[in-house]
Amino acid sequence: MKVNKHLLDDVEFVKSPNTGGDLKPDSIIIHYTAGRDAESSIRTLVNPKVKASAHLVVGRDNSVTQLVPFNVVAWHAGKSSLGGRTGFNQFSIGIEIDNAGVLTRQGNVYSSWFGRAYQEKDVLRAVHRNETVRKYWHRYTEEQITLVQEICAALIEAYDIDAIWGHEEISPGRKIDPGPAFPLDKMRQRLLLGHRDEDDAEPIAFPAPGIVTAGKLNIRSGPTAQASKVAQPLLQGANVTIKQQSKDWYRVRAEVEGWVSGHYIELKD
Ligand SMILES: [Zn+2]
Questions:
Q1: Which fold has domain 3-100+140-192?
Q2: pLDDT tens across 168-181, in order?
Q3: Which of 103, 230, 235, 236 has the maximum number of C-beta atoms within 10 A of its C-beta?
Q4: What is the pTM for the complete model shown?
């Protein structure tokens, strides 16, 4: 991922008319769309009647669409304030991630506000940082989390970005996105403070045994979410041998060999 003339390289651009003046971004705001799919969210965010937009929309399977160049104000944050600043549209890049948001449960069926049903494997039960009760949240895909992290890294390289916030943090009480299913704290620790997770602070002695913690984990030809998939995804609980590391990626051997996101591999003792 690379920024070139205020656009992400190799990403589709669909121009939104819903923009303000010049932007010199110093923050990134993470959102979920609470929509049906990326296409319908893009249609909404380029509709001049809607008066909303974002710089990027990240779909559930590796698709990224840019709607507004990074040097132009997009309308994603609305009424917002944090640390004595207000109106975050004026200094932030907005990333919308395709996710249905909070779900309601009836028996074994989890439904979104627009009436679609989701399987249990796509649902996380967790307490939101601004709330006290557990709710059901639509999970993000592995591709989305990895891509958003790669996009944020590219933006930090291109601009003087010193903060990544969730919409829920700059508009608490009014907004709950991206919610607890998005690893926001982890991501900003990694990207802004250069921290690795505490549990992988110790260097790994290769080869090391590992276990898959995601429901499904794609195995790829290289250490990036854009590398091609080399086999059927690994399933939760699958045993792997970790042979090599490249930043957040492990090269593992299961029945086949390839690269997986290290976020979803737990080291065994
Ligand atoms: Zn939002």
A1: Lysozyme-like (3.40.80)
A2: 999 999 999 999 99
A3: 103
A4: 0.76
